[in-house]
Design goal:
By secondary structure, the chain is mostly beta strands. It has two domains: 255 residues, Porin, LamB type (Maltoporin, Chain A), CATH 2.40.170.10; 173 residues, Porin, LamB type (Maltoporin, Chain A, Beta Barrel), CATH 2.40.170. Helices cover 6% and strands 55% of the residues. It is built from three helices and 22 strands. It has an 18-stranded antiparallel β-barrel. A two-stranded antiparallel ribbon has the order 6-7. The protein has a two-stranded antiparallel sheet with strand order 12-13. The protein is globular, with a radius of gyration of 23 Å.
Length: 442
């Protein structure tokens, strides 16, 4: 069972999502058709030694406890996430279908050199219609090329749009460390202190026209990974600085102040005897980078509190195969945002135990609770039971076909916030759903 977790960790090093498994090169009809349609006709196409395909799929259908369509419950403000909030302890609380499909074209692949082009498309939809004519989005989320090991250097160079991210809390669907997805360029795999150093130049561009051109945010990102502190303990560092220029809106004449900010953080990666890992992270962000990502507000008007915002975050994430029968995911999170005289806090904890009745039939459960303190305490607790069929006994074994029943509880102070996404339960303090779901990595 250790091999599955090791493979998962190796995929993180490759900048692919933790759980995406590559299929054998050139083994599927879809790849063959793609090459025939788009690659073969070009006389100037680069040679391709092999192609690998990877992706993620989550789909299903649920019913609320009144017999209507499933409604999901979120603690708004959790994880510093806008809108409905982050989907903490998400088992049984996913109300949409989601698909990512990517291809990697290896132009040159030797022991020391690797040159490849990679792209990925993501689609999200509600599953309400046969042809998804509404409430869906499809995006080109990755399109970049990378060159590694040229001119006798171990360095790598990349340019394009990519998921530039490191670690996630799987049960919260939460990329919390180094999640700077976007357009840019970078240099990586530079040996330093026994680890690998990397730099990236990243950009977020708005649709606001100003006296300085289209308003945009520029971020300079630095990471130092895999410093070996002890045989089972490694340390990662992350630092980034972002800025947007002072400007004036050419349509409204609104004045935008210069927006700046930075983030610093460290992650301790402890190997649990090859049967899992424990990640402990401390992050601090300020100003336009207070959310630890590329999407801060770049149109800051006078009096806007963003420049004063300071966020401190602690996260502990564990995945562990206890024995032949038991395994679990665990997350413990704390987040505090301060600005001027205001303060917001988020505290969350969740565990997903997995009991293997047989190698391929598992009883899965999940229990989680969070508190958002912002003008009062807003609480949300969820309990879920989900028997599932799995391709293997490994905790990462996919695909899985699961049935689920989930029930959430919240306090009176949270009623109005819960109702924004689950109006059927607007005057309640609890609600649930049951249904079926498939989840697979490939």
């Amino acid at each position: 069972m250790a091999s599955g977790l090791t493979q998962c960790q190796n995929f993180k090093k490759m900048e692919l999502p933790c759980n995406f498994w590559q299929i054998p090169p050139m083994k599927t009809t879809i790849i063959a058709l793609f090459l025939t349609a788009f690659v073969a006709p070009s006389a100037h196409a680069l040679s391709i030694t092999d192609v690998s395909m990877f992706g993620y799929l989550r789909a299903g259908s649920g019913t609320n406890t009144y017999g209507g369509d499933q409604e999901c419950f979120y603690n708004q403000g959790s994880g510093g996430w806008g809108g409905v909030g982050r989907n903490e302890f998400r088992l049984g609380n996913e109300c949409s279908n989601y698909l990512e499909v990517g291809l990697r074209f290896n132009h040159l692949k030797t022991e020391k050199q690797n040159v490849f082009t990679q792209f990925r498309i993501a689609n999200s939809h509600n599953g309400d219609d046969s042809f998804e004519s509404k409430n869906q989005s499809t995006n080109f989320v990755e399109a970049f090329a990378e060159i590694q090991g040229m001119n006798d250097l171990p360095w790598s160079f990349w340019v394009g749009k990519r998921f530039y991210r490191d670690q996630d809390v799987y049960i919260d669907d939460f990329y919390y460390f180094g999640s700077m997805n976007g357009n840019g360029a970078g240099i990586g795999n530079i040996p330093l202190l026994g680890g690998e150093l990397s730099f990236a130049y990243l950009r977020q561009v708005s649709d606001v026209k100003t006296s300085k051109g289209t308003q945009s945010l520029t971020v300079y990102d630095t990471r130092l990974k895999n410093i070996q502190l002890a045989p089972k303990l490694r340390q990662n560092f992350w630092a980034a600085y972002g800025h947007a220029p002072e400007s004036e809106d050419v349509l409204t004449m609104a004045k935008y102040e210069k927006a700046t900010g930075f983030v610093v953080g460290t992650l301790l990666d402890y190997d649990l005897n090859g049967e899992g890992f424990n990640h402990f992270t401390i992050l601090y962000g300020q100003g336009v980078m207070n959310d630890f990502n590329l999407y801060g507000d770049m149109t800051v008007t006078p009096g806007d509190p963003q420049e004063d915002k300071k966020r401190l975050r602690f996260i502990n994430h564990t995945t562990y195969n206890v024995n032949d029968r038991w395994a679990f995911h665990l997350s413990l999170n704390y987040d505090r945002l301060t600005y001027k005289s205001a303060k917001e806090q988020w505290m969350g904890a969740a565990v997903r135990p997995v009991y293997r009745v047989t190698p391929t039939f598992h009883m899965v459960s999940e229990v989680g609770s969070s508190i958002v303190k912002n003008g009062g305490d807003r609480r949300l607790t969820r309990v879920t039971i989900a028997p599932q069929l799995s391709i293997s006994e490994n905790i990462w074994g996919r695909p899985v076909l699961r049935a689920f029943y989930t029930h959430s509880f919240w306090n009176t102070a949270n009623r109005a916030f819960i109702a924004q996404n689950a109006p059927t339960y607007g005057n309640k303090t609890s609600g649930g759903a049951y249904g079926f779901q498939v989840e697979t990595f490939f």
